[in-house]
Specification:
Blueprint lengths: L3 H7 L16 E4 H4 L1 E4 L14 E4 L10 E3 L1 H10 L8 E4 L7 E3 L6 E2 L2 E5 L9 H9 L15 H5 L2 E4 L2 H39 L26 H4 L1 E3 L16 E4 L16 E3 L1 H5 L10 E5 L7 E4 L4 E2 L3 E5 L5 H10 L3
Parallel strand pairs: 3-7, 11-15
Antiparallel strand pairs: 1-9, 2-8, 3-4, 5-6, 5-8, 10-16, 11-12, 13-14, 13-16
């Protein structure tokens, strides 16, 4: 059994701002004792439409785009009759993807079946801005998905560890500043992706054409590109999955990938998680694909592709393109440009 001093030590974070290092241990509080928890009233499908005045977000989505719309009249009626968040209140998806969290910005919108958490005049104990980041650290659903729905009472009984208000403010400000930087960087990345997509559309010939619209100066007089069938450029082979009933097949050192191991964003990213034996190759449809081959997903996640930098085996989700005589990066980007 732990002593009281051991328990107190466990309530002190390992990283703390200098001015709070001597401020003592954090306190354990039940959310129901210091805050209020409520849930939005369900809106029927017949009350929504593809257009309207007020954006409507379904259970567990909290996406940037509304799932549907409701009329302003319905919105005002529900606001008047039932629990409704105020600006700054925390919304937590109660089913679907449990635990997705957003802060309500005060703009007209309706969030169906989301738990609303606010601090009901107790901001001298707990700041919503701090609580928001507390929720980010919680694993709402375990590997066996034992939680199928989040109820108000689950939140009321939840224990959280709370520092004094000045430390809450410092932590919330630090993390929100980082979120702002991440958001700005994400916008830059998205802009670069759009720029790259536009370049690819111009650097490769459009369908039915043999000359790209945009060409580097030194190649503008180089004439049309050659037309070839894919089978003339590559040897084309499939893949397979060794029997899962034989665990010994999966104890080797030869990398084996399925379609989920290929990134949709990068032709150089392959996440290798499984390895098989030479015996597994002999007794299944999978094959050892040589390095500098293009692994093209042709079943689940069609169009994703990657270049392998080492010999590798694939599942039956792939059509593998090998033994080419051209620049592999060029070929991969060309295939990506026509992946639709």
């Amino acid at each position: 059994m732990r002593s009281k001093s051991d328990k107190k030590k466990s309530l002190v974070p390992s990283l703390r701002f200098p001015e709070f290092r001597e401020a003592g241990a954090w306190e354990v509080k039940r959310l129901g004792g210091i805050g209020s928890v409520s849930m939005c009233k369900r809106i029927l499908k017949s009350q929504t439409s593809e257009s309207g005045d007020i954006p409507f977000y379904k259970i567990g989505t909290f996406s940037k785009q509304a799932d549907a719309f409701i009329e302003n009249k319905i919105y005002e009626e529900f606001k008047e009759k039932y629990s409704f968040p105020n600006k700054g209140d925390i919304l937590i998806s109660a089913s679907g993807t449990i635990g997705r969290t957003v802060v309500y910005d005060g703009k007209p919108a309706y969030f169906q079946d989301s738990n609303i958490v606010w601090i009901a005049n107790n901001e001298n104990i707990l700041l919503n801005a701090f609580l928001y980041y507390c929720y980010k650290t919680i694993q709402w659903q375990t590997d066996d998905n034992t939680i199928s729905r989040l109820y108000n009472d689950n939140l009321r009984k939840m224990k959280i560890v709370v520092p004094p208000i000045p430390e809450q403010q410092k932590i919330a400000h630090c993390l929100s500043s980082l979120d702002e930087v991440i958001g700005l960087q994400a916008k830059k990345v998205q802009a670069l992706k759009q720029h790259k997509k536009g370049l690819m559309q111009q650097l490769f010939p459009a369908e039915g054409e043999t000359t790209p619209r945009l060409r580097f100066p030194e190649f503008r007089e180089a004439g049309a590109w050659e037309v070839k069938r894919l089978g003339e450029v590559f040897d084309i082979t499939g893949g397979g999955t060794p029997s899962r009933k034989n665990p010994d097949f999966w104890k080797g050192d030869i990398p084996w990938v399925s379609s989920s191991d290929i990134s949709a964003d990068s032709i150089k990213e392959i996440s290798i998680k499984k390895f098989i034996t030479p015996e597994a190759i002999k007794k299944s449809a999978t094959k050892l694909i040589p390095k500098n081959s293009i692994l093209l997903v042709s079943r689940v996640g069609v169009g994703k592709l990657a270049i392998t930098r080492k010999p590798i085996c694939t599942s039956q989700d792939f059509t593998n393109l090998t033994h080419h005589q051209y620049n592999v990066l060029f070929l991969a980007y060309y295939l990506r440009s026509i992946s639709h």
